[in-house]
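Thanks for the sequence, V.! I ran Protein p34 right away. Repeating your input here for the record:
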Amino acid sequence: MINSVNMAWLTIAVAVIVFAIKLLAWWLTGSVALFSDALESIVNIVGGSVALVALRIATKPPDAEHPYGHHKAEYFSAILSGVFIILAALAILHAAIRGLMDPQPLQAPLGGLALAIVATILNGGWALMLRKRGRALRSPALLAESGHLMTDVWTSIGVVAGFALVAVTGWLILDPLVAIAVALNILWSGWKLLHQSADGLMDRAVSDAERAQISAIVTANGEGALEAHDLKTRHAGSATFIEFHLVVPRAMTVEESHDICDRIERAIRREIEGAMITIHVEPDPKVEEAPCIPIADGGG
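Predicted structure:
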């Protein structure tokens, strides 16, 4: 099965091919909208390269200086991708404004249109593949690249439609106007990516659905304990850190409570890939009235 590092290498290769096709389309036509589309593909190449470096760091095992691993390296990759996206959008705006002031006639519109469509289809197919693998590998870097590529795809669709309209109507001003719309869309995409990546660096908790899943696993596999409480979670790249307090009867031996913890941990890891679990065992006077996770047949 292809791992995240190999996916990053393939993403760079696809980005280079797509960029070459889009650059050829711009060279044939002189369209500022196609130029803006090609410029965004440079960001894909840079972003893929940054993601590759981050993934190679993130997959390193824990060491003395990083006992919790290197998972968060992927979020730095996503942030850098967001910065590059914004820079590309500003460059496109600059070119589009110049084109708006001095619209130029298009050359070889049919050839340019055909090349742009081929690049869009290739990009879209790879973006969907990358999203599927990113979800399977729980990789923020791959998902960020997938999101950026999908933005590129929708941008390209808009560019192709605008370019075709210019070719049909002869309204040259539409070409730079499409490029400006592309730039604004890219700016919004870059901002969203920065926001999502910052959330990851701030140790955002798992979703409500994932939290409910964890609670259900503890309930179903904690037989012998009384309850669990103080559940805390956070995502760090492909890892999910989970910790909670487990209340057991005071008379229970250390070995018995340890067996319960092992059973719960195995169950969680079967359902949640990359789970890093810490369980603090407490005696029964610690039972809380606050919201807690009940245990099936607790204390039985």
